[in-house]
Amino acid sequence: TVAAAAAxxxxxxxxxxxxxxxxxxxxxxLVVNNGLARVAWKRLADYLEVSRRRxxxxxxxxVLAITGYPVGAVPPFGHKAPLRTVVDTAxxxxxxxxxxxxxxxxxxxxxxxxxxxxxxxxxxxLSE
Length: 128
Prior knowledge:
two-stranded antiparallel ribbon
């Protein structure tokens, strides 16, 4: 869990980030968000300019097929193919974050400057 990971790392739970794969009109979109925050579906749908009904979370088999990683281990980058990635603006409130490291029991230590450099500058306020 986010709380357990934060306790082990000795950091604020908001420094644990999660990468959640959505399908917007069947096109994959990765959302990077603070671990305890929930994605506001309507905000995401509006940002992506799709109806809320056309937005789905990818099921575990889809996540593995699209990213190359199982649910719970998806890093914010380094996928089988480049993915459109939208980072919640709150992620950048911390200089250092920890995210999926490619397997369930691994975390990646990452500066948010490096995260932005790698995934691009697409950000939006997507948290509830």
